[in-house]
Each structure stands twice: as structure tokens, then as C-alpha cells.
Write a sequence for this structure.
């Protein structure tokens, strides 16, 4: 009985020994999903997740700067507070928690650059991508506004958690740091959500949010000295809107152009090089 | 029916029918078939990109930390200004975790010539693949550090370029010993994480493999940063030495190849011959339950 060949599989042209199937490209406009509650639930989840992300992280930044302010906390304040390492942990750890919580609901993007990368890879529809980005941006603004609402004096005094290119670094350096940082993040997201890897891991994706959180943490360690680390346009937008300072606004373009370019490069690298989905390579037999 | 199957498979496959894993056969030194597969070149590209990202993130973290703790640049109270040496150790360990996770299914996630060398000694990769990986890792490291220098060249030169060299107060023997033991810890963890017997015991779900490898790197950095800045990865040391290009890193550079390769060899021997009882199998004088 077991020896019988599954003719339908052979006729479909699929490789029979593979126990995973790459999902078909998402349509640009999916009329069906517009009528489903799951789309709106996902959008709400992205909004709330991004709101929480910005509230926790910006509150951490403001608290750190207050505790290390010599004029507010005494002359030996420099070593108080959670430190830059603690800020990096806040960003990375919060992404881990929130991706874990929302992965099954919205895919756990929490970042317009991630949504853009997945859209380029045809894993989300255009409508869904736009709704997610809008929800993320609004959530970010609300999250930072909560921080300002609760500690407005400190918020304005300590830079509002806004992303700006630091003194001593050029605009080009900031842009490059954002591009590479977002590449690391989106590349990790692609690896974590790859159906082939899920099949190899016996379809147990339990660890997927952890490397994504660690990727955010790592990029923050490397990039905080340069730009305060954006790699998330919603995060940068939220702080710029609520802080509303000319320096933050004049550098804002870096935090959209850089992440979107980095996400696009990551999408190309993963889809074309690693998954070899461009079947134009006639000279190699692909085992993707 | 059930008993016949057991007896038959037992007779045909030798003893211990209860094992639900098989050790893969030793990789051939030269595998002509794999040279024609895209998967080999994809793996080499993945190793290059992974090592490039590893060096970019980690060296940028080192330079950023030194800049933020530089009193002449960031004020008199700068000593606690950066991510700290702990943050640097996290950057190395965390980045290895992320990158091993991303490339494990593509290239095995080595990102380190010492790991490749250890796995080659254990016959888990072919000679050609090992050499290609090592070249890709070294080139990726050079490009990664090159990116850091391109983006912040003044700070890169001023703050030592993230290069590995022996710290003052430590002898070369101490540095070499630290690199040997540090790499032993890392490669031994890699062997344990990729052991087919352990995968069988864990129901063939290798999801956690990259995490202890990343933590091993993190732990070794905590211990060895004061001694040598921690190499335990010849590509990492080479990348920084090439781009920074000063006498001191080059004088000490041999430590960062001899130490890691010796440590990897010891780890390969320990895991394959003692823990997996490869020698006992060969001798046949003990009944092995490997």
C-alpha cells in the first residue's frame, strides 16, 4: 500500500520528498481579506504592539537620561541608570516579547520596514501592508505621547527619545548604519519565518521571536552611538512627531530611506540568493 | 510480524536496533558532485555575508563604545557612557546566535574558520568546502571591518580599529592559552549542539542549537576580553588586522590563528574520540553504547 506512487503529486510537478510548500505570492489586492475580522484584528494587534514598544523603550531612554543627569541626580550620576546596554535590551527584549505575542495574529511585524520587506517578498498583500504601516505609525505616535503625557517635563528636557545623527557623524554614515542595521533585522525575520526551515525543525517554530529580538538588540548596540538607532520608521516617526524638534525632523528622512533600502536588500538576498527562487539559474540545479 | 521485523533489521543492520539515529558517513576529502551544486556556492555566499555582518556589528559596537567613553570626546564623566565591555561581549555572542540561526540550514552556520577546521577534522565537511568557507569567512571579515572604517574612519583609527592584540601585562603564552581554551569551549559547544545522538534524544528538533553556541561566545568574551580582546575566530582577528594595519596587531596575529586552530583540534578530538567513543569502536575492546 505504501509503495503506491502519489500520481497527483507527480503530475503537479512537485518534489515528493519535500514536506513543505512555499505559499503562493500574496495578491496585491485581496478583496476577500477586506471582509474578514482577522485583518482588522491583525491591524489592531500591530497598533497595540507598536504602542507598547514605543512606550517601554522611550520611557527607558528618558528614565536613563534623567538618572544620569548630574544636575538632577548629583555629580556622580554618570553611572546611574540602566546604561546604554539597558536601552539596547529594552528595544531588543520588547521586540522579542511583542513578536512572540502577535506572531500568530498579525505576523508580528511591529516595524514598517519589516512589513515592506515581506511585501516585496509577496508574503503580504498591498492593502494589508499599507494598513499595517498606518497602524504601526499611529501606535508609535500614541506610545511616545503616553510617555510625554506621564513625564512631560523630563520628556522635553532629555531629547524625547528622538532619533538624530549624533555629533561627529555624517549624514551618509547615519544612512549606511540604518541600511545595514535594517538588513540584519529583516534578514533575520526572513530566516525565522522560512517555511523550509520550519519543515527542517519539524514545524516547531518556538524560537522564531528570540533571534529577531536579539537582532534588534545587536543592531542597537552597534548603532546607538551613531543615530540612536532607528531601523524602525514608525519608532523614529513617533518620537519626531511628539518631540517636534527641527533637528529630529531634518534627519527624519534617513530613518525612512535607510530602513526601506535595507529591507529591500534583505528581501532580495533571501528570496533570490538563499532560496534561489529566481529560476533563471539554468546552469545550477537548485535544491531550494 | 513485529518480531520478525525486529530480528530482520537487527541481523541486517548489525547490533543495537534500538538506535533511531545514524551517524552520517565521513565527508569525502574531495566531493566532485557538490562542486556542481548551487547549494555549495549559496553556502559560501551565506558564510561571506554572515561574517561581514558579524564583523560590522561587533567592531562598530567596539568603536562606538570607545568613542562614548572617551573623556576628551564625550565629557569628563564619560566612563560609564557606552554599552560597556559587557555590551561588547553581548554583541559578539548575540550576533553569533542570530547569524548561526539564520545560516544553519544553508551552510551549517560556521562563521568562524576554527569551527570549520574542527568540523573538517571530524570529517563533517569536505576539504574543498572547508577551504571555500574559510576563504569566504576571511573575505567577509575584511569587508565587514572595511565598512566600519568607511563609515567612521576617524574614530576607527583613533580607537584601535577593534583589532585583537595582547593587552599589556599579559605574556604571549597567556594569550595563546586563553585563545586555545576559549576556542575549545566554542567548538565543543558546536559539536554538542550538532550531535545526531542528542538530536535523536531531543526528538530531532534542533531549534535550540544556535543559542548555546551564541552563549559560549558570550561567555568566552567575558573571560578573555581583558587578555586579548578575544579572538577565538581567526577571520575576526584577520579582518581587523588587515584594515587597521598597525604593527602591534600584526605582531600578535599568529596567536589568533594558532590558538583557535589548536583549540578546535582538541575539541574535535575530545568530542569524537572520548565522548562519542570513536576510538573504542575502532579498538573493539569495549562494548560501546554510543
Amino acid at each position: 500500500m505504501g509503495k503506491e506512487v502519489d500520481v497527483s503529486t507527480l503530475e503537479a510537478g512537485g518534489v515528493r520528498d519535500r514536506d513543505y510548500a512555499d505559499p503562493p505570492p500574496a495578491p496585491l489586492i485581496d478583496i476577500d481579506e477586506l471582509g474578514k475580522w482577522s485583518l482588522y484584528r491583525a491591524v489592531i494587534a500591530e497598533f497595540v504592539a507598536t504602542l507598547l514598544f514605543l512606550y517601554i523603550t522611550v520611557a527607558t531612554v528618558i528614565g536613563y537620561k534623567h538618572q544620569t543627569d548630574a544636575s538632577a541626580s548629583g555629580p556622580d550620576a554618570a553611572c546611574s541608570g540602566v546604561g546604554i546596554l539597558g536601552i539596547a535590551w529594552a528595544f531588543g527584549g520588547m521586540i522579542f516579547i511583542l513578536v512572540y505575542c502577535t506572531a500568530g495574529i498579525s505576523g508580528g511585524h511591529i516595524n514598517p520596514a519589516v512589513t515592506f520587506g515581506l511585501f516585496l517578498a509577496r508574503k503580504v498583500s498591498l492593502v494589508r501592508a499599507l494598513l499595517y504601516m498606518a497602524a504601526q505609525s499611529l501606535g508609535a505616535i500614541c506610545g511616545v505621547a503616553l510617555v510625554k503625557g506621564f513625564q512631560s517635563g523630563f520628556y522635553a528636557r532629555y531629547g524625547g527619545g528622538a532619533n538624530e545623527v549624533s555629533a561627529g557623524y555624517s549624514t551618509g554614515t547615519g544612512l549606511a548604519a540604518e541600511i545595514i542595521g535594517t538588513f540584519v533585522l529583516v534578514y533575520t525575520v526572513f530566516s525565522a519565518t522560512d517555511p523550509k526551515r520550519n519543515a527542517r525543525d519539524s514545524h516547531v517554530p518556538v524560537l522564531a521571536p528570540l533571534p529577531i529580538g536579539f537582532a534588534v538588540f545587536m543592531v542597537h548596540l552597534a548603532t546607538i552611538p551613531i543615530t540612536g538607532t532607528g531601523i524602525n520608521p514608525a519608532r523614529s516617526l513617533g518620537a519626531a512627531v511628539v518631540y517636534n524638534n527641527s533637528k529630529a525632523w531634518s534627519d527624519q528622512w534617513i530613518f525612512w530611506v535607510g530602513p526601506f533600502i535595507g529591507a529591500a536588500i534583505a528581501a532580495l538576498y533571501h528570496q533570490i540568493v538563499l532560496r534561489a527562487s529566481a529560476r533563471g539559474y539554468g546552469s545550477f540545479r537548485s535544491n531550494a
